[in-house]
Amino acid sequence: MEPLWARLDELQMPVRVIAGERDAKFVALARRMAQLVSNGRLVVVSGGHGLPLENPRSLAQTLLIS
Description:
Elements: E1 15-20, H1 24-36, E2 40-45, H2 51-54, H3 56-64
Parallel strand pairs: 1-2
């Protein structure tokens, strides 16, 4: 599959990019992604790569915030 990083600026809807604070690789990727989306927002929550298992409450609260 071709990388789509160059097309992220085409997204018109708000985009919330979520990563776990202990997963430096994915925090960096999430930061890059949020910067490329015109209406992107990075949210870093407590946890690592497996947020649904490690911190389901924070993940759910982050998803529910409007």
